[in-house]
Amino acid sequence: MTQAQQHINYAETLDLRTKQFIIVGVLLGLFLSALDQTIVSTALPRITQELNGLPLYSWVTTAYLLTSCAMVPIYGKLSDLYGRKPILLVGIAVFLLGSALCGLSGEPFLGGLFGGGMMQLVVFRGVQGIGAAALATVAFAIVADIFEPRDRAKYQGLFGAVFGLSSVVGPLLGGFLTDGLSWRWVFYVNLPLGLIAIAFITAKMPRLASGLKAIIDYVGAALIVIFTVPLLLALTWGADGNYAWTSATVLGLFALSAAALVAFIFWEARHPSPIVSLSLFKLPTFTWVMIARFLMGAGFLGAVLFTTLYLVNVKGFSATGAGTATIPLTFGFILGAQSSGLIASRIGRYKKLLVGAFALATLAFWWLSTINADTSYPLLAARMVLVGVGLGPSVALFNLAVQNAVQPYQIGVATSAGTFFQQLGSTIGVAIFGTVLTSTLSTQFKQNFAEVARTAPPQLQAQIAKFQQGTASGGQGGQGFDLEAVKRQAEQGIRQSFAQQYAGIEQAIRSGDPAQFAALKNSPQVPAPLRTGLANIPNQAVQSPQGQTQILTRLRTGLDTAQAQALQQTDTTLDKVGRAVKVSFANSIARIYRFGIFVILLALLAVLFLPDRRLELRRPGSGVTPAAVD
């Protein structure tokens, strides 16, 4: 039976120095979780090469996402039941264990465990995700436990800035460790940071118990895992093209997820201490924040992923370079998160800030939707800053709104629910946007390649068709198809063709046979301009060595000119191919941002329905936080 006992007011009992000490440890733990999502992606190509695991490439990320997302609401409830400190320490410990095992993947002493090195990494990344879910969830709840509502705003903004900082540091540090030491160090680097975080947390942090006494909802925990994992798998496999959206596998996963969701709602409505209390949805603040975070998750991740895709396929950045080039987005996100927290702390309200932020984000997405193949990087960077400033406040202010609307013993569940909805929104948004991108690219390639293919020289027709097929079907700009390699291959083929032509002509002329020379004049293998020139030369001219030399010299000059023209035509055609690819991607990604405008507008609409509650301070000595009345 659920029972909320007297809650200790840690905001009153802890001094500021102790709070700051605790925050340092919590920030380190949160930074570990955020950093791991960006640092590993840089090292993945090297890992795949060394462990010979290309077929499992995407699973290194998917395994982490599946376990992390499924565990988020469970950790939120556990932290309400047993206190933030023990759950956070367990999460860090599991995360560090997973990190150490990931770094050991493929080592000889592990043998054929789980089938080999790459599969070991996938399994151990799942372990990492189990731990990371606690870091990303409990950290935001701790802020609500140890600070007054107004003070929370400043620190929630700081926590939001950590995610932005990790997106800058991660790719740079991942590249440095992979190239300078070994890819294994992108996992080992977590160990000292994690141990420092544990030291800070154990030294000063109290248990931070909510006062909630209840039995554990094991069935609810199992059902939320059964709901989440098949849903994310179906969305991931459908978006990646591993299975068709109408395949039995994807439809079966969706059906299983839907059945688990129905069972979860039925069970939670009757359990005395549910994982996620359905009564929370009776609070307008909670309901509208969950809707807005779901939509914001789709919009923000879409902005990051598709901006990176634009930088790689249109502007020619490397994968690592594109990560660095998105720093303006990160800067804007940090600026928006931190400044909104400080302003909310000063004025004691959050709704107007959220409305203004999402209005700005809508304007930013509209501006992004105007990009084309010729948009300069400085103008793109300005757009990214605006997106970051618009979406940055959401991390701090949404948590602030929810935590201010629930009882202290519900803070863990409410905070984790927000994270869960945002992650679901990100996954579903990327799947939908990815499908839109693939279909739009197919149309764009047909349009933009049509004229190129029509005017292309015969020796390039096959290569262009192959390139077009690879880009349209892959949806990733033919990343496995190198345009420069096509150019080199075409140029080599042209030179070989002209060399063979000259050898055949030389043989016919050196034979001294007028009949062979006459046949040569009419051969379709000889370029038309040269046949015209040869027509004026008497057949008997080949009977003398001097005549043969003069004819060959004349032909050599003509063939060299024709070869140069063919090479120039090849370069021109391939430049057109490159331009067609850039225009296709730019137009397709611009269309994605037009869909993004709609998503962000819906989030803005949800924010408009939020009750505007003042961030009141706790009553001295009460020991209980009065929930905002919706």
Automatic annotation (TrEMBL):
<feature type="transmembrane region" description="Helical">
    <location>
        <begin position="158"/>
        <end position="177"/>
    </location>
</feature>
<dbReference type="GO" id="GO:0022857">
    <property type="term" value="F:transmembrane transporter activity"/>
</dbReference>
<keyword id="KW-0813">Transport</keyword>
<dbReference type="GO" id="GO:0005886">
    <property type="term" value="C:plasma membrane"/>
</dbReference>
<feature type="transmembrane region" description="Helical">
    <location>
        <begin position="56"/>
        <end position="75"/>
    </location>
</feature>
<keyword id="KW-1133">Transmembrane helix</keyword>
<keyword id="KW-1003">Cell membrane</keyword>
<keyword id="KW-0472">Membrane</keyword>
<feature type="transmembrane region" description="Helical">
    <location>
        <begin position="592"/>
        <end position="610"/>
    </location>
</feature>
<feature type="transmembrane region" description="Helical">
    <location>
        <begin position="183"/>
        <end position="203"/>
    </location>
</feature>
<feature type="transmembrane region" description="Helical">
    <location>
        <begin position="350"/>
        <end position="368"/>
    </location>
</feature>
<feature type="transmembrane region" description="Helical">
    <location>
        <begin position="288"/>
        <end position="311"/>
    </location>
</feature>
<feature type="transmembrane region" description="Helical">
    <location>
        <begin position="126"/>
        <end position="146"/>
    </location>
</feature>
<feature type="transmembrane region" description="Helical">
    <location>
        <begin position="243"/>
        <end position="267"/>
    </location>
</feature>
<feature type="transmembrane region" description="Helical">
    <location>
        <begin position="215"/>
        <end position="237"/>
    </location>
</feature>
<dbReference type="InterPro" id="IPR036259">
    <property type="entry name" value="MFS_trans_sf"/>
</dbReference>
<dbReference type="InterPro" id="IPR011701">
    <property type="entry name" value="MFS"/>
</dbReference>
<feature type="domain" description="Major facilitator superfamily (MFS) profile">
    <location>
        <begin position="22"/>
        <end position="614"/>
    </location>
</feature>
<dbReference type="InterPro" id="IPR020846">
    <property type="entry name" value="MFS_dom"/>
</dbReference>
<keyword id="KW-0812">Transmembrane</keyword>
<feature type="transmembrane region" description="Helical">
    <location>
        <begin position="21"/>
        <end position="44"/>
    </location>
</feature>
<feature type="transmembrane region" description="Helical">
    <location>
        <begin position="317"/>
        <end position="338"/>
    </location>
</feature>
<protein>
    <submittedName>
        <fullName>Drug resistance transporter, EmrB/QacA subfamily</fullName>
    </submittedName>
</protein>
<dbReference type="Pfam" id="PF07690">
    <property type="entry name" value="MFS_1"/>
</dbReference>
<feature type="transmembrane region" description="Helical">
    <location>
        <begin position="380"/>
        <end position="402"/>
    </location>
</feature>
<dbReference type="InterPro" id="IPR004638">
    <property type="entry name" value="EmrB-like"/>
</dbReference>
<feature type="transmembrane region" description="Helical">
    <location>
        <begin position="87"/>
        <end position="106"/>
    </location>
</feature>
